Amino acid sequence: MAEGDAGTNWEQHLDGVNLPRHLIDRLVIRHLLSEGYEEVAEAFAEESRIRVNRESRHLRERTQVRDAINTGNVDAAIGIVNEIDPDIFDRDQALHFKLQRQKLFEALRHGDMQGALDFAKNELAPRAEMQPELLDELEKALGLFAFPQPDQSPLGHLVRGEQRQKLASELNSVILASKGEVETSALPHLLKRLAWVEQLLKAGGAEFPPMTLESA
C-alpha cells in the first residue's frame, strides 16, 4: 500500500473515534499544573470553560521556582525551594550542584567568560572534588570554555532555553516528591505509550503515518 493510501485510511479511522474535547482539555490542564505553569493553566481553563482544581499546596511556589529558573535567577529559585523544604538540597546534593552549575551557564549567556571561569574554579570544582560523581557534570560545563561562542558550540544547548526548562522540570519533580505529592499529569505517560505502540505496529509491518507535532 502506498504511503498516501495508508495515511488516508488512518485518518478515516481516526475520524471515527469520538474522544470528548473536554477530556483532552483536562489532560492538558493537569499537565500544566503538575509542571508548575499556573498562569498558563488558568488561561487555558478559562478559554476551555473548565474549573481549575489546585490540588497541590505548593503550586504557587513551584510556579515561582519555574519562573525564576526560566529568567536566569537561580538564587531566587534556591531561596524559594529552601522555604518549601530546608533539607531538600542536603538530600539531593547532585541537584544543588546542577543549580550552581546553572549560574555558570547564565554567566556565559551574558558573555561573562571570566566570571564563569572564576565561578567554576572557586565554587564548582571544590564541590566536584568532594563528590567524584559530579565530575562528569563539571566536565560538560568546562567544555563550553573551549569555544569563543559557547551557544554555537556542540554543547550550546547548555546555555540556551531548553537547559533552563529541563532544570526547572527536574526541580519541580523533586519538590513534588519531597512533599509526598505524585505528579498527576497523565500526558507524558500517554505520549510514551503512544511511542511504544508505534514501535509495535512498525515491528508488525503495519503501515500508518507516524505521529508528529503537525499531525497531533
Automatic annotation (TrEMBL):
Which PANTHER family has this protein been placed in? Answer: RAN BINDING PROTEIN 9-RELATED
SMART domains named in the record: CRA, CTLH, LisH
PROSITE patterns in the record, alphabetically? Answer: CTLH, LISH
The protein here is known as CTLH domain-containing protein
Q: Where is the CTLH domain?
A: 58-115
